[in-house]
């Protein structure tokens, strides 16, 4: 599964900007792939990029129409179908993050069959994976893990990719969630995989690579989240990380959606090391990434300095202060890290 | 999902006894539900129960035809279809452990729709679960865990049910795998569930119960198996066990299907306690169940005695020596365990 850029971003007629969160994430991280947006009358979201018709997008070389919006219930409204069919007829693939599968609409399925185009339903996984093998693969790998869900794991991995590439390092973001798949054009939503194949899917997502290449793997959930720890465990075993970054949101007291108390960063480091050693005995913590949005600037700096002293690891807020300190340590700890041979 | 007994066991024309392993397991543990077997010409398996036609089974009150055999590739041969349709026309539900879904055969789907019968594809999960909540449910729970896959977890849970019921204790086996689902008439193959819902599915499999009732939950995989630890982790969190039994096969050096070394029993106890405390802080090991088939009688007894001394826990081979010592400790440690109000 490879979603081919460049993209035309289809926003339908969603009612607010939040409904276009996935599309916005793609524009934030892959602006160069997003040549335009297509909005229906009364659309209340705006990605701040050029409005464009299907014909206009085709003229610009667009290869894929991205349905990167969330409707109530994740359904695909009937009145969006004609735009999607038009894109297919213009030679585009279509990728959607909706719950409704694109091919469940007969007009869309028929058009894709007729024109030989691919439909990607990123929220679903029709792929067949092998079970995980646990054999150590060549290449360096970093996994972002969390004290909870939604603690900045995707953002941190993407920020690391950006900073590492800016320093000429050979690194690729590896997606394990829906938005990440659109951003990288590859990967799969790991929580949608059949349970038996979690670690096997991750072995596919971050396959054998050059010995000095870094895969920066997006974590999911938390080993301490009673709903999703199974996913986090399989992801850890499949990722075989050499290094991990703990992502944390300091104002939460219970984990998202449940009454379970938040674990400490020390707990997360300890259990990640304990379980991660199964498939990579060399696993080490690299640093801590904190979402300090709820803290003032001085307070945030003090909080991060205290954490850094406590754990003997760099601590930063990737949004506020960047991930430079994490990459500094990565380069120091892994001097073998490869340089980019290509333009990133 | 509730598969209603009594059962007629359909063996088709499988080529050997091993292909009827699931059916044999059902007869071993639920002989009273298995009123007969139906075999096609050239069938090489035999469950040692009465051969019976659909009409004969109907006369005996059979409610479900069980397709409990494994063919090459798990496919449903076309020439089995007419028997299945005949069972449906006679008013039976049909439950299958094959990979091919029953409803994918148009004649079977049509017959089930026409006669209002239910088709169970035990290997698949079309059920919708909530995500796990982690809230402590009333009732006592025991989980069998393993140093590896196929280490006796199902057998141990079933043997505990039998022994506990024989002592008048209120206990139910809870299935998390295909054979177990046929044996208990309920449950689901947890490894076929979408990853996000592993612990939620287990919360459904072993729901809130009387405070003194025991659920004996069939474990899967191992927290140390690089292919399946995600399943084991979600199962542990969803099961919220008060007690667990470690199942072990002493002659293995690597885990099934991979090159990973077998963990020690101490490792398994330690990590199970560590992770299990997330959803049940009272979790404790109850004992050790060993498959000593490869050892002589005296050697097996010495091995178990040594284990018992080392861990301060009862150790037994459930097949060779029964699970009496485990139930002795359970009754001693949990004097509140409820008595059967019904005939088990």
TrEMBL record, chains A, B:
PANTHER family: DUF1611 DOMAIN-CONTAINING PROTEIN, GLL3100 PROTEIN. This is N-acetyltransferase DgcN. It comes from Lacibacterium aquatile. InterPro entries: DgcN-like, DgcN-like_C, DgcN-like_N, P-loop_NTPase. The gene is dgcN. Residues 47-124 form the D-glutamate N-acetyltransferase-like N-terminal domain. Residues 129-327 form the D-glutamate N-acetyltransferase-like C-terminal domain. SUPFAM superfamilies: P-loop containing nucleoside triphosphate hydrolases.
